[in-house]
Design a protein that fits this description.
about 110 residues
Length: about 110
Amino acid sequence: MPLIGGRVVFKIFDHNTALADELIGSIHMELKKILPDANGKKGGLEGVWDWKQIYGSPLDVSGKMTDKMNLNPEIASFWKGRILMRTTCEETEKPLLKVKPIADDEVDLA
């Protein structure tokens, strides 16, 4: 399967009720850890729950480099936390770009 890029980057935003949501950091995942290989063997993270670290810029700073750090975890200098994720993949003829907010009732904080 030909790939344009070798990774997926997830942008992590805070949730504000009065102001616009702000980008706080990002995480990336290597596609080869998710997608099946040439022999059909599934990737090591396929269907597995895994903690992903969020990296971004230091707090209370702004500017061009701050924006780059929040979008590129490999150059970020500040750890922002972690989230628990499970990844899956499925074959499709016409892939779609989807953005789906996580509803409050979908989050289990227990």
